From TrEMBL:
Pfam families tied to this protein: ADH_N (PF08240)
GO MF, one example: oxidoreductase activity, acting on NAD(P)H
Domain Enoyl reductase (ER): 66-452
Gene3D superfamilies attached to this UniProt entry: Medium-chain alcohol dehydrogenases, catalytic domain (3.90.180.10), NAD(P)-binding Rossmann-like Domain (3.40.50.720)
Composition bias, Low complexity: 342-352
Entry protein name: Chaperonin 10-like protein
UniProt keyword list: Oxidoreductase
Domain of life (superkingdom): Eukaryota
Originating species: Cladorrhinum samala
InterPro entries, sorted: ADH-like_N, ER, GroES-like_sf, Lipid_raft_assoc_Zn_ADH, NAD(P)-bd_dom_sf, Trans-enoyl_RdTase-like
Family to which this protein belongs: Belongs to the zinc-containing alcohol dehydrogenase family.
Positions of the UniProt region annotated as Disordered: 18-53, 341-364
Length: 454
């Protein structure tokens, strides 16, 4: 639980964020006079007296009534209401399915209440906006990214979805709704893993964010306590990933890996992908956006580690695993803390136990960093290596982070620098989501995305 002071600081951050948005959108004022001086708390929940359009009162949704049960199609369910400034209402047109959508009910996690509405990303059309200045307007085609799984208004498995405008991406005309629905959560996870956990600066890529610096310029009290250490203390400035460094991604065929590789390459990292080469090797090798510098077969994990170490010769300090604990443990064996005083192949760095980052004996020692998207090894991190979990809630809890990421993604998509993952198949209608999730359970969807048209 956060203290009342933290809550007040969060509202103040929202207030400053809105003032900045107002200045940058001077041509899109609401009906309230500039001379009005509502208090900070009032502004934080202010919504236009007259909605820009009138959505229906009820809708169809998918409800989960019990764990290990299929979702149930429910009609005449209330359409969610806008409750605070900078919220918009989106009419869903396409929903991207994610593994957590079936794993959460099957294994009983990330379900804060029952009945529950799931779904983390969708593309559609803005049908209502709040009274605050915003870069979004009615009829905008958008991607809404929901990382706040506790707010059912923002869940994707319904016809109308609430989203913060700083968690919503305008789609370029060249992208279909189905394509747009494939990349939201994967993009956020990739950007936070690289930008926060590895400290990678994206400012050289269409003026992307330097998340490492951005989060250090907001009050620490605005960052949830359970992720504060990861955000502020997990990597030292001189250890940050930089252009020319190597990054290995284990499970390189997933959509999260896809976006991770794309962003890493844009920022100048050299990349390794560990995948089932028989299933995905040709596709990765032939796709310029996700073609890696080294492609390794995952069939024999021990052999994969040997190949990585033999080719990179101790130069791999950053690894991202997208599969789970076992593969993360294998990736850990491929990492090498780098001592700048060692010989060129990094042997000294591997043979001599390094100092932990908190008490370094030598400032030239650079720790290795293992980032787990779905799990980390059961063992404690060895000396010279740090384990990281992605602080996903930064995206919706710190407006400056959310706005920086969605604005950057808009520019990347408009310029064609980020490509949506491949669509494996398209199901039709909310009622088909259970069928789609069953296909994912059986392992039928691999190397791309399953999408549902609404």
């Amino acid at each position: 639980m956060r203290s009342g002071g933290g809550s007040f600081l969060r509202k103040m951050s929202l207030h400053k964020f809105r003032k900045s948005a107002s200045l940058s959108n001077s041509g899109a004022r609401d009906e309230t006079s500039d001379s009005d001086t509502a208090s900070t708390q009032q502004e934080a929940i202010a919504v236009a007296d007259k909605p820009s359009t009138v959505p229906p009162e009820t809708q169809k949704v998918l409800l989960l009534h019990a764990v290990r049960q299929p979702y149930q199609l429910t009609e005449n369910y209330p359409v969610p209401k806008l409750e605070s400034a900078h919220e918009v209402l989106v009419r869903a047109q396409a929903i991207g399915l994610n593994p957590i959508d079936w794993k959460a009910p099957d294994f009983n996690f990330a379900i804060p209440e029952l009945p529950y509405i799931s779904g983390r990303e969708l593309a559609g059309e803005v049908v209502q906006v709040s009274g605050a200045p915003s870069r979004l307007k009615i009829n905008d085609r958008v991607l809404a990214i929901s990382t706040d799984y506790r707010d059912l208004r923002k869940a994707a498995y319904q016809e109308y979805v609430v989203a913060f405008d700083y968690n919503t991406v305008r789609l370029p005309a060249a992208l279909t709704a189905e394509q747009g629905s494939t990349l939201g959560v994967a993009f956020v996870a990739a950007a936070l893993a690289l930008g926060v956990c590895a400290g990678l600066d994206f400012s050289s890529v269409l003026e992307g964010p330097d998340l490492y610096s951005l989060i250090r310029n907001v009050s620490p009290d605005l960052i949830a306590q359970d992720i504060r250490s990861e955000c502020l203390d997990s990597i030292r400035s001189h250890e940050r990933a930089r252009s020319g460094d190597w990054l290995a991604v284990w499970g390189g065929s997933s959509t999260s890996a896809n976006l991770t590789i794309q962003l890493a390459k844009l920022a100048g990292l050299k990349t390794v992908a560990v995948v089932d080469k028989a299933k995905h090797g040709l596709r990765l090798a032939n796709h310029h956006a996700i073609r890696t510098d080294l492609l390794v077969d995952s069939h024999d994990p021990a052999r994969a580690v040997e190949i990585i170490r033999a080719n990179l010769k101790g130069k791999l300090r950053f690894g991202i695993d997208v599969r789970g604990r076992e593969s993360a443990a294998s990736l850990l064996q491929a990492l090498s803390p780098d001592n700048l005083g060692s010989d060129s192949d990094g042997a000294a760095a591997r043979d001599a136990p390094p100092s932990p980052p908190s008490t370094p004996h030598d400032s030239s020692l650079l720790s290795a960093h293992l980032i787990g998207l779905t799990g980390l090894p059961k063992q404690a991190a060895p000396e010279g290596t740090l384990f990281h979990t992605v602080p996903i809630k930064l995206f919706h809890e710190v407006p400056e982070v959310g706005e920086a990421l969605v604005s950057w993604l808009e520019r990347l998509l408009a310029a064609g620098l980020v490509q949506p993952p491949e669509i494996i198949d398209v199901e039709d209608g909310l009622e088909s989501i259970n069928t789609g999730l069953d296909r994912m359970r059986k392992g039928e969807i691999s190397g791309g995305k399953l999408v549902v048209k609404v």
